[in-house]
Write a structure and sequence with these properties.
Layout lengths: L1 H24 L5 H20 L12 H26 L1 H7 L3 H12 L6 H18 L7 H24 L5 H27 L7 H28 L2 H5 L2 H16 L5 H31 L1
Membrane topology: Multi-pass membrane protein
InterPro entries: AA-Vitamin_Transporters, EamA_dom, EmrE-like
Family: Belongs to the EamA transporter family.
């Protein structure tokens, strides 16, 4: 159990750094091209790792789940995340992603028939109020970027629940590698069109190359193996409750590296979102322990 928590803390700290690195890279290379290279590099890295692993056969009935993970979870969701980062900045997008525990709880209720407890309802209300404080009280934001980021959150939550659904049948390596391959294939035509339009603006230098390598190997291949592994060991709600670590990491790095300004509304909104998430997690743990005692 302790090992799974270590996986989650590592995952979200590295995902927090992803927003800062991607914000730098997106200033030099267009969005969908960054995503395509990110997944291609991740897939190559995972393919090398899988050479020493036993090959798993995917059942035909599960093809649809892998497609959902690759197309919706990694292609649509993460591309929207990158686009949102480019428009609104890393701290804002990371904050919006703090809603993932709430959205995943709703998705789990719909798809896995899990009960939505009163503490989760309270968490949803607090978190949504936090978002309102940021986007509705005069904060300096780009609404299109926030909207795109919400789409990313919904897609990622859906993918995470699907991953949890089939995690008992396939290893985290197989789940991640196949999904990365699908996302890479989906990104190729979009990236090709994007390059045709934006090629005069592309700036490829050593910093951009190192940034993409970091995004592909560390923040995609490595972290998504840890994420899918964690989902196979713990409930999706528990895994997603670690998202505040990502927000705090990215916000700190955003201020340190890009000198982003955290307004009062942003700080207060962040507080409400994180408190809402913690209420969901703490009461959820208490309920689980009480059930174990009753059994």
């Amino acid at each position: 159990m302790n090992k799974s928590y270590l996986y989650l803390m590592t995952t979200f700290m590295l995902w927090g750094s992803l927003y800062v690195v991607s914000q730098f890279v997106l200033g030099k290379i267009p969005t969908f091209t960054v995503a395509m290279f990110r997944y291609l590099i991740a897939f190559i890295a995972l393919s090398f790792i899988s050479l020493k692993s036993k090959k798993e056969k995917i059942e035909k009935s599960d093809y649809k789940y892998f497609f959902i993970m690759g197309f919706i979870g990694y292609f649509i969701s993460v591309d929207c995340q990158l686009l949102g980062t480019k428009i609104s900045g890393g701290s804002m997008v990371s904050l919006i992603n703090s809603l993932n525990p709430i959205i995943i709880s709703v998705m789990a209720m719909i798809i896995l028939n899990e009960k939505l407890e009163i503490n989760k309802i309270i968490g949803i209300i607090l978190s949504l109020f936090g978002v309102y404080m940021i986007v509705g009280t005069g904060a300096n934001i780009e609404f299109i970027g926030v909207l795109i980021s919400f789409i990313a959150v919904i897609g990622w939550a859906f993918m995470s629940v699907i991953s949890r659904k089939i995690s008992n049948k396939y290893s985290a390596l197989t789940l991640t590698k196949v999904s990365m391959l699908i996302a890479t294939v989906c990104n190729i035509p979009v990236s090709f069109l994007e390059i045709q339009i934006t090629h005069p603006l592309i700036q490829i230098d050593i910093g951009a190359i190192l940034g993409i390598l970091y995004m592909g190997i560390v923040c995609t291949a490595f972290t998504n193996i840890l994420w899918n592994k964690s989902l196979s060991m713990l409930p999706a709600n528990t895994c997603s409750a670690f998202y505040p670590i990502q927000t705090l990491t990215s916000s700190f790095l955003g201020v340190l590296v890009f000198h982003e300004i955290l307004t009062t509304s942003f700080v207060l909104g962040s507080t409400f979102i994180i408190v809402g998430v913690l209420i969901s997690l703490l009461f959820q743990k208490r309920t689980r322990k009480e059930e174990e005692v009753l059994v």
